[in-house]
Amino acid sequence: MTLDTAVFRFAGLVVLASLALAHWVHPGFLWLTAFAGANMLQASFTGFCPAAMVFQRLGIRPGNTFN
Hints:
Blueprint: H1 3-24, H2 30-46, H3 50-57
Helix pairs in contact: 1-2, 1-3
């Protein structure tokens, strides 16, 4: 697994989990979905992604997107 794959999987997991929590627990969890979307949008412009930095420190090999 590369860094890019790990970041995309994590982002997808956060979005799906927050939607499930919003449906079954409290609608306020939709803010987590909005945060994940905003983070993906800014990362597409800047290349800066906090999750990529964490995964990189965990030793996941680099990909092509987040260097």
